[in-house]
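Weekly structure sync, notes
Attendees: PL, DS, HV (note-taker this week)

Item 1: Putative transcriptional regulator, Crp/Fnr family
DS walked through the input record. Source organism listed as Tenacibaculum jejuense. Sequence as pasted into the shared doc:
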Amino acid sequence: MQDEKAAKIASFFEMETLNKGDLIIREGKTSKKSYFLESGIIRCYIIDLNGEEVTTRFYSAPDFLNDYLSFFKQKPSEENYEVLLDCKAWSINLENVQYCFHNIPEFREWGRMLLTLNYVKMHKHMISFHKHTAQERYENLLKNHPEIIQNIPLKIIASYLGITKYSLSRIRKNIS
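Item 1 (cont.): predicted structure, written out as tokens:
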């Protein structure tokens, strides 16, 4: 991409500081922004039928995140996005995203690639519940995202892996 096009795209983003504990997207509310994380970790979670929080996704810098259905369809989100580690993020609103999609072909191609990569991540995570053991899922997370293992409470990691925090403690003990 040419420098002037990259600079034009960058001009649509605003820097934000997101604090630990903030909910940047709330279930039942419509997502108004898309974010690029420069630093920090965010989790996406739902409340299950038993009233328990279940982590469905982690975003750790550098990463791009939004609730695609809520953001692009302007419908209420079905999930919560919580800041787990203070973040420096760059945000862009829907109007500016649409402008870039319609006027900057490189942005459109990047957006298509980003959507595909996010689909692949979600699909692999879903398949892992049926093809891998809990220990294999943990080892994969440890290998690919050690920053999550090092900074996030076991209860949250366990919910992402689909196990109890006690099972996760046993797995960690077996590995060490």
